[in-house]
Automatic annotation (TrEMBL):
Gene3D superfamilies linked: 3.30.465.10, 3.30.70.2740, Vanillyl-alcohol Oxidase, Chain A, domain 4 (1.10.45.10)
PANTHER family on file: GLYCOLATE OXIDASE SUBUNIT GLCD
Name of the protein described by the UniProt record: FAD-linked oxidase C-terminal domain-containing protein
UniProt signal peptide: none
InterPro entries: FAD-bd_oxidored_4_C, FAD-bd_PCMH, FAD-bd_PCMH-like_sf, FAD-bd_PCMH_sub2, FAD-linked_Oxase-like_C, FAD-linked_OxidoTrans_Type4, Oxid_FAD_bind_N, Vanillyl_alc_oxidase_C-sub2
PROSITE patterns: FAD_PCMH
Cofactor needs: FAD
Record-annotated FAD-binding PCMH-type domain positions: 51-229
Keywords from the named record: FAD, Flavoprotein, Oxidoreductase
Length: 498
């Protein structure tokens, strides 16, 4: 797996495979356990297809009690568990392990309740992101986070990775739109965190769970916020002679207090690939393209369109087109949403990166990425959420050329280090997984990482949930100062404790 080091396989678990499979079949009867090699092949990778591992066994539960029973059994037997949703993760977060139960939540695919009075919906984790919007759109509502993979990605996976999307600039990430979860811990306990109420007292456990990448528990139910569709939404398609001009336009739009519903940017390779694929009417004689969507009351949208046009002209825009209908607006977005598969048509393979930078650093980072592209002799197409600085460089390579994947990974690591260097972070929405795991020390100190691991110890003291992800070096809980209580006696009982 291209030099990727994963946890050493537990020989005791491997030797008991037949026994473990039988026990799991007792818990999840029928076709809920997949153990033959050919059938498990479809689960050997997630969206980061550069890395593949055949699962130990695949389990597809249908009820919360089955999830709890599987988790309790694995916890008691010391068996590792890797949770998986739709498998669209681009960071290897759902990469299986050769000695771990792959717990696939795709059968949890029902919408349990739609509460328009409280503007929320209760759904199972296997429901697709777009499925929530489809369920409520007849009443004029929608679910705001909209990753490019929204037609396939599951809401449980969105919670695990804190997914965003093209409209997260104004309406927030998953963490801003999830108000409650049901979670099963490794010891089989079923917990409810949050709910239909606005805020919960005490620690922000919901914030801890959202974005935890399956390291703390398995989500079995999600309560999400649904929003009313804006009265008007119109999109501007703006072309620029350079990416730097487009980047400066983005910075000025935000600095003038305008918060678009979405603001996306593509460079020339991505523009051409998307246009050939979708035929959205993108200009092909520009180096960079902005899609700026403005929504709200019609009078406000008309006013803001005029202001954005002025800002674009100041920044040397060469083309500007405003959508005149809902169909045309959707067509503008269709090219952007299809940019990732479109790039797949111009290269045998591509590596989709994910890093976030301060908006003001956009011109600097784009220029540096061009230098890195020349250095590694690899093409790169840029598609990203310009409004919040979330970059998605697509490094084009050919996995059949010896050494090219390794070179691509080095290129990607340099891009992520650059993001941190200019004041950004390693990920905006794809998560850490295995892709960015070994880069965590470039962003966090050892003390930071140890504190994060203490949180994991509180939920999963034996490190059975999704091991090998996120942390470059996992310490035992005892090494992190976890207190040992023997027969109810704590060390130094005379000391006051708070």
């Amino acid at each position: 797996m291209s030099g990727l080091v994963m946890p050493e396989l537990d020989t005791k678990t491997l030797s008991r495979r037949a026994e473990i499979v039988d026990a799991l079949r007792d818990i999840v009867p029928g076709e809920g356990v997949i153990a033959d090699e050919n059938s498990m092949r479809v689960f050997e990778s997630d969206g980061l297809t550069a890395y593949k591992t055949l699962p130990f066994v695949v389990v597809l539960p249908e009820t919360v009690q089955q999830v709890a029973d599987v988790m309790r059994y694995c916890g008691e037997q010391g068996i590792r568990v890797v949770p998986r949703g739709s498998g669209t993760s681009l960071s290897g977060g759902a990469l299986p392990l050769g000695d771990a139960v792959l717990l696939v939540m795709s059968r949890f695919n029902r919408i349990l309740e739609i509460d328009y009075d409280n503007r929320c919906a209760v759904v199972q984790p296997g429901v697709t992101n777009l499925g929530i919007t489809h369920a409520v759109q007849e009443r004029g509502f929608y679910y705001a986070p909209d990753p490019s993979s929204q037609i396939a990605c599951s809401i449980g996976g969105n919670v695990a990775e804190n997914s965003g999307g093209v409209h997260c600039l104004k309406y927030g990430l998953t963490s801003n739109n999830v108000i409650g979860v049901e979670l099963v811990t490794i010891d089989g306990e079923i917990m409810r965190i949050g709910g239909k109420h606005l805020e919960s007292e005490g620690y922000d456990l919901l914030g801890v769970i959202t974005g935890s990448e399956g390291l703390l528990g398995v989500v079995t139910e999600v309560t999400v916020r649904i929003l009313q569709k804006p009265e008007t939404a119109r999109a501007l398609l703006i072309g620029f002679p350079t990416s730097e001009d487009a980047g400066q336009c983005v910075a000025e739009i935000i600095s003038e207090g305008i918060i678009p519903g979405g603001m996306e940017m593509m460079d020339k390779p991505a523009i051409h690939a998307a246009e050939d694929f979708v035929h959205a009417g993108y200009p092909l004689d520009v180096e960079a393209l902005l899609i700026v969507e403005l929504d709200g009351p019609e009078a406000e949208v008309d006013y803001l369109i005029g202001r954005v046009e002025e800002i674009a002209k100041r920044n040397k825009s060469t083309t500007l087109r405003v959508s005149q209908s809902e169909d045309e607006r959707n067509t503008f977005w269709a090219g952007r949403k299809a940019a990732f598969p479109a790039v797949g048509r111009i290269s045998p393979d591509y590596y989709c990166m994910d890093g976030t930078i301060p908006r003001r650093q956009l011109p600097v980072v784009l220029a540096r990425m061009r230098e890195l592209s020349d250095h590694y002799n690899l093409r790169v197409a840029n598609v990203f959420h310009a409004g919040d600085g979330n970059l998605h460089p697509l490094i084009l390579y050919d996995a059949n050329v010896p050494g090219e994947l390794e070179k691509t990974e080095e290129f990607g690591a340099d891009i992520l280090r650059l993001c941190v260097e200019v004041g950004g972070v390693l990920t905006g929405e794809h998560g850490v997984g295995v892709e960015k795991r070994d880069l965590m020390p470039s962003m966090f100190t050892e003390a930071d990482l140890e504190q994060q691991q203490r949180v994991k110890c509180a939920f999963d003291p034996d490190h059975l949930l999704n091991p090998g992800k996120m942390f470059p070096q996992l310490h035992r809980c005892a090494e992190l100062g976890r207190m040992h209580v023997h027969k109810g006696q704590v060390p130094f009982p005379d000391l006051p404790r708070f």
